[in-house]
Amino acid sequence: MTPQRQLKLGAFMRPVSIHTGAWRYPGAFKDANFNFAHLKRFAQTLERAKFDAFFMADHLAVLNMPIDALKHSHTVTSFEPFTLLAALSQATERIGLVATASTTFDEPFHIARRFASLDHLSNGRAGWNVVTTANPDAALNFGLEQAFAHDERYARAREFYDVVTGLWDSWADDAFVRDTESGIFFDPARLHTLNHKGKYLSVKGPLHIARPVQGWPVIVQAGASEPGRQLAAETAEVVFAAHGTLEEGQKFYADVEGRMQRLGRHRDHLKILPGAFVVVGDTVEEARAIRAKLDSLVH
Ligand SMILES: Cc1cc2nc3c(=O)[nH]c(=O)nc-3n(C[C@H](O)[C@H](O)[C@H](O)COP(=O)(O)O)c2cc1C
Asked: Looking at residues 136-147, what average pLDDT do you find?
């Protein structure tokens, strides 16, 4: 019997809508990016609509676009992903909460503990979009004169992933015995110290947070380059893709799947989520009219 396959739906809203004209659409909530009441309602609506995940992008700087273009954009600023998703975790029950976190401008200990915390808070709904941050302006916000080279960023990302997942495994699932009789809270034999020393990172561990509810939060990636695809094939459970044609999408899928096979990973262990801009209307004509109106609102 063929196993039942199910479509996965993720919402990429940044955090309200990706369309530059959206905030000018009649009836739109212009301040929704920083209005938690709206964001909460949107996330709850996505959950009712059976979406699997709500995704928060993060670029660690204002997008490097000409200011004349940028001044029209409502996506120019948005919440820090963990803060928003921690709040949304308390307003939702089932939807996955995917935060972007950078392997170039952050430390694995910070990332491991933030995701472990989000996973506990949300009862096992956290996901990590592993990015290496291509935006050169981000370097200037972290005391650096220039950005790291692309391949160097990916080499660090691969080691970074090993450290974060190693830290998540610091405590065995049954480490906390909490035995009131003996007064033993945890079993030291079930605590593992990472002692990582690699080319880019040195992290002793252990993490001072219990193992995440999922074990490891869901690993998401969106690499398009050679090292980006390789990182995805080695580590990711979800890949965001953005291709203009079906042929390009199929080529990408075959390439990532081929890499997984060579690594001994099963294709079902990774879902590729191609990006689509969705406009909802009662009829196709109405949806087309909404799209045309939205496009007319972009300068
Ligand atoms: C749907 C989608 C979402 C992305 N979100 C982010 C993000 O939030 N932050 C970021 O720095 N890069 C983001 N990226 C960029 C990717 O991480 C990646 O750098 C890009 O696809 C180019 O691939 P490469 O890094 O392999 O060259 C996103 C890409 C896609 C397709």
From this structure: 90
SS3 72: coil
pLDDT at residue 146 in the model: 83
pLDDT beyond 90 at 4: no
Residue found by looking up tokens 């979800």 in the block: 238
Q: Can you list the domains of the chain with their CATH numbers?
A: 10-146+209-296 (3.20.20.30)
- Ligand 1 pocket test target in 9, 129, 150, 229 with most atoms within 8 Å of CB: 129
Atom index in ligand 1 nearest the CA of residue 241 equals 31
Strand ranges for 68-212 from DSSP E: 96-102, 126-131, 176-179, 184-186, 196-197, 202-203
pLDDT at 1: 65
- Centre of ligand 1 to C-alpha 137, Å, is 15
